[in-house]
Amino acid sequence: MSQADTLISVRDLRLSFGPKVIQQGVSFDLKRGSIFAIMGGSGCGKSTLLKSMIGLLRPTAGQILVGQEDYWAQSGLRRRDINLHFGVLFQSAALWSSMTVGENVALPMEMLTSLPADDIRRLVDLKLGFVGMEQAIDLMPSEISGGMRKRAGLARAIALNPDILFLDEPSAGLDPITSARLDDLILTLRDGLGATIVIVSHELPSLFAIADDGIFLDAITHTPIAHGSPRDLRDHCTIPEVVAFMKREADLPPTDQTKG
Ligand SMILES: Nc1ncnc2c1ncn2[C@@H]1O[C@H](COP(=O)(O)OP(=O)(O)OP(=O)(O)O)[C@@H](O)[C@H]1O
């Protein structure tokens, strides 16, 4: 792949809270059109890494290159501009409870663009249609299911046609069928909208089904110990920590997880 196919290049990143180092020596390239999984056991620093990539946590060393730009060397204003190319789905979906689903999806367009209200309304319909939620436009978040909230959160995350979508535990709290539907939707977002996706997830079936690249963070050494797609790591990696993590899934009866 050429350099133009690398959307983000993470170079020798160190993430800390005060004196406590969470991860160091984190390096990887995020390739255009990929679904990149950040993997590892509880507390290894997956969300912390995600936060550093979306501008919520400044790394203590290393670089995150977005295109040719060193993200954290930019002014806050410039980082905000770069963030317009990012869409984020937080674990809780983070919908505003006092706004309808439609108003939630409209919010980024109202705050960050000068589009007229009619255009915003049409775009909200379009985005909600994309995630199969057009019927829920006037409902409040409290009136819809967890899976629907995730889909509404996705509609809001794609409101500004992002180049990169960051998904923090998108299937957390969902039943297996709803979770599989969300996997299909994520694949549609990648294939239909051409988005590149970074996903933090504990859900191995979901990772095997959709992710084609990734990194495995180790909580003991505080470093990445493996790179590759979840399927490749499951089938070929011999590092004991990775094998133990993947084995949780391998103990289950085999299913066809080769989609994507
Ligand atoms: N604001 C903070 N201040 C201090 N320590 C923090 C802070 N946020 C997270 N941590 C610590 O950083 C480590 C990594 O946390 P993080 O949430 O990134 O892990 P994770 O891999 O996403 O975990 P999980 O899979 O359980 O969600 C943990 O030890 C956590 O306690």
Automatic annotation (TrEMBL):
InterPro entries in the cross-refs: AAA+_ATPase (IPR003593), ABC_transporter-like_ATP-bd (IPR003439), ABC_transporter-like_CS (IPR017871), P-loop_NTPase (IPR027417)
Keywords: ATP-binding, Nucleotide-binding, Transport
Domain ABC transporter stretches: 8-246
UniProt name for this protein: ATP-binding cassette domain-containing protein
Transmembrane segments: none
Pfam (any one): ABC_tran
Gene Ontology molecular function terms on file: ATP binding
Gene3D superfamilies: P-loop containing nucleotide triphosphate hydrolases (3.40.50.300)
Top-rank taxon, per record: Bacteria
